[in-house]
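Per your request, structure below.
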């Protein structure tokens, strides 16, 4: 029987005992209540001690976990720092290589734009004209138009579109024909075909120069421009063949004379203080764009 039940039984027994007076019963009840109070207090003390011990253990466990987490974070930070230190030279080398490639392409395309200057190339950008020139090539190759007549038509086209001759000169497209001592297989038809390729690339030159100019201004990172270039190639908007040639040409030029990027910086600086330079648009880009 627990303490409460035992006390209740004693109190009931005292009440039923006819030998006890009211005063005796009161004393018995008071004694039992005092005993129960002490018992409850002892139970509470034990519970408090248990709770305190549990809280202490929980606190110790929490501190232990915290210490372990801090240790792991510190070790990870050291490991990351070590890896970064080991990879730094390689990362710098890769970034340098990317920058050189982009610089080479920019140099080539900007150099082309600069040489074209303020030449009016609207006729070269007219898709109707381009289709006519393509058709002329097709008719000549299929024999629909005899070679002498085709050459005459090509000469008329170049006379009517002086920008085409300018583009041919800038890109080095026109070669000496074989009958005049040029390379074997070179004739007016092959020269016209090569020129047409350059004409069709003008929108690509414009697209690339605009994006690369943003990189030069610090509006794009080298990695962003590289990804953009890859995307344009994958979508068929930029021909990877001329991009490769542009890199090669720009890379060689950078070794023999001042780079186009240096000229660009100088032109931009001059334009910002005095207005557009001769032969350039308001944003310091040659009007080929």
């Amino acid at each position: 029987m627990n303490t409460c039940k035992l006390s209740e039984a004693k109190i009931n027994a005292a009440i039923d005992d006819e030998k006890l007076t009211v005063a005796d019963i009161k004393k018995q009840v008071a004694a039992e209540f005092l005993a129960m109070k002490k018992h409850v207090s002892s139970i509470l003390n034990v519970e408090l001690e248990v709770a305190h011990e549990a809280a202490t253990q929980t606190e110790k466990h929490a501190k232990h976990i915290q210490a372990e987490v801090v240790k792991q974070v510190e070790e990870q930070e050291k490991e990351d720092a070590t890896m970064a230190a080991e990879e730094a030279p390689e990362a710098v080398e890769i970034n340098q290589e990317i920058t050189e490639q982009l610089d080479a392409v920019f140099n080539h395309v900007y150099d082309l734009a600069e040489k074209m200057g303020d030449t009016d190339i609207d006729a070269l950008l007219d898709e109707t004209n381009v289709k006519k020139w393509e058709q002329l090539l097709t008719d000549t190759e299929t024999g629909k138009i005899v070679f002498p007549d085709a050459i005459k038509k090509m000469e008329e086209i170049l006379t009517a579109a002086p920008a085409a001759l300018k583009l041919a000169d800038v890109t080095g497209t026109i070669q000496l024909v074989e009958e005049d001592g040029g390379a074997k297989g070179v004739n007016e038809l092959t020269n016209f075909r090569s020129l047409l390729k350059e004409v069709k690339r003008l929108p690509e030159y414009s697209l690339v120069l605009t994006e690369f100019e943003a990189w030069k201004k610090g509006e794009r990172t080298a990695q962003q421009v590289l990804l953009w270039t890859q995307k344009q190639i994958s979508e068929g908007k930029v021909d990877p063949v001329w991009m490769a040639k542009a890199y090669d040409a720009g890379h060689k030029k950078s070794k023999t004379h001042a780079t186009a990027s240096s000229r660009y910086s100088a032109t931009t600086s001059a334009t910002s203080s005095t207005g557009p330079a001769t032969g350039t648009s308001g944003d310091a880009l040659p009007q080929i764009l």
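DSSP finds ten helices and no strands in the chain.

Regards,
D.
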